[in-house]
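Work Package 3 (structural annotation) set out to generate three-dimensional models for the target panel prioritized at the project kickoff. During this period the team completed the workflow that converts sequence records into discrete structure tokens, so that structures can be stored uniformly alongside our sequence database. As a representative example, we reproduce one entry of 112 residues exactly as it appears in the project archive.
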Amino acid sequence: MCDNTNTNLSEIKRTYDLININFDAAYQKCDTDAQRKQLVALRDSARDAFWKSIAANLSDNHVLIEKSLNDLKTTNDKIQDAVKSLKDISAFLNMVTQGVTLAAAVVTLAAA
């Protein structure tokens, strides 16, 4: 199953957890149906990336993957800070989009 010592898996899981745990609060801050749909899609994409990473048992430590993981960690840190206030939902959604994109990229690169 999930090896928490595998940083590839742990940062991808962190992305999903940050979105999933804070989903209700973020959903309530959404001003439009488009934002709500985007948030749902991002949560679902983060979940899919996480489960794909488990299925692939990612363990590739290529330099590009390491850089992407560092970028993902930085983005996750920003998401974690932003979720404390959720003052600007558009900025939050953009940040989450970046995190999910990086998580999906790591899954794709590490599985190749």
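The chain has five helices and no strands.
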